[in-house]
Amino acid sequence: MIMNLPYKRVLLKLSGEAIKGTREYGIDPQFLVFIAEEIKAGLSLGVEIAIVIGGGNIFRGLAASENGMDRIAADYTGMLATVMNSLALKDALLKVDVDARIQTAIDMKEIAEPFILDKARSHLNKGRVLIFAAGTGNPYFTTDTTAALRAAEIEANALFKATKVDGVYNCDPVKHSDAKKYDSLGYMDVLKEELKVMDSTAVSLSKDNSIPIVVFDMNQPGNLVKVLSGESIGTVIGGKQNVRVK
Fold it and tell me: Does pLDDT of 150 surpass 90?
């Protein structure tokens, strides 16, 4: 364990796309093992880790509703996709000897616990990884918002947004070679500039609860340990710091 770490407890937000690896859709079991090993390394520091995972690799509720599906039915279908991903991630964690639990916002006691805040905190205090599934249990709320809400409820020191790029840029770095990366941003900078880091509700909820958002590339081995240790990689959103461009 490393002493004097900047974080005691974090909420890690994974996108559904993060676990499909090189596949076009679905779940890549080998890539899941990589993610599980990264989480295990983070736990070895003594940090408590909770996780919210999206379902976009299986089903996108908003996209389905835009194509004619009822929005509420589409959102509930998306919630079920997050449960599938959570079960797969839990399995990968158990295979690398990490004790993990799933709590769902929709009751499905045969496969997961219901979300109970006191029990969630107890799991974290015991060093278990806790995966929150099925969103908030309500339509019209994204898994980004779920991550911000659960981070506030468990009193996390930070919300870690894992992506496939190394931070927040002023435009898409894949499409624009002259894109500029931010070292740090204020919450209002993200909202005013519509930087699409997380949805506006998630950013506002993080702002209201003074929870910094750390955006980093989790595809690079060792990056989770680096950000948990306080290394300056990625982009930090929150506080009163001025925006700095690399």
Answer: yes
User: Of 134, 153, 156, 137, nearest to 54 (Cα)?
Assistant: 134
Q: Provide CB contacts within 8 A for 21, sequence distance 6+.
A: 28, 30, 31
C-alpha to C-alpha distance for 169 and 179, rounded to whole angstroms = 6
pTM, 2 dp = 0.92
Query: What's residue 17's pLDDT?
Result: 83
Q: Please give the average per-residue pLDDT across 13-29, as a whole number.
A: 86
| Per-residue tokens: 208 | 């209201």
Class of domain 9-245: alpha beta
d(CA 152, CA 159): 9
3-state secondary structure of 9: strand
From 37, 40, 46, 44, select the one nearest 5 (Cα to Cα).
46
- The helix or strand, by DSSP H or E, that contains position 151, with its residue range, turns out to be helix 143-153
